[in-house]
Amino acid sequence: MKAAVIVFPGSNCDRDLAVAFRAAGFDVDMVWHKDTxxxxxxxxxxxxxxxxxxxxxxxxxIAARSPIVAALKAHVEAGGYGIGICNGFQVxxxxxxxxxxxxxxxxxxxxxxxxxLSVETTASDFTSGYxxxxxxxxxxxxHDGNYVATPEVVAALEAEDRVAFRYCxxxxxxxxxxxxxxxxxxxxxxxxxxxxxxxxxALGTADGAALFAxxxxxxxxx
Length: 222
Ligand SMILES: NC(=O)CC[C@H](N)C(=O)O
Known about the structure:
Helices cover 23% and strands 26% of the residues. It is an alpha/beta fold.
């Protein structure tokens, strides 16, 4: 399996994401946001966390207009995998590849700590390595993690089993305590907590490693 990690000015989890992909067996290429093409044969595109363009305008809004985004959209529209973590989730929402928006945390504070999440569905190639309802611990580090969407969108996400992760306790005001969602074809995952920062026991929790391992396995089986 081959992964590409997009790097924006202000990305700060790009290398963490590359390390997590590599540990799961992926070949990884780093791709500068001004590039217009993804490397040949990429299976999954990772949109990393950070503070792209200093979080000006809205988090992810400027990055979503970067030249590489057309290639990202084409990859996803052709059925390719994508994962957006934290700022990467914000970018995916701003591109329209996932529905909804992320607003300022309800408490108006930056939140940086490990949090407990429940795995809401195992019916995706990101979450198939967990058991349904399993509690995992990933860190969060964000000020704009308050997920909002229209009631119709939230109802569709729930009805279609597209809520991938939920905060076990209200963290930031997100509707339905939603922490991560899947695209309609279940091949794009956006989430605020950081599995790549929880992918090695040396980091305090290795709960995130199963996500990358499941994705690698799905590719091998395909
Ligand atoms: N760790 C991150 O990716 C930060 C995300 C975003 N810039 C925020 O603070 O909301």
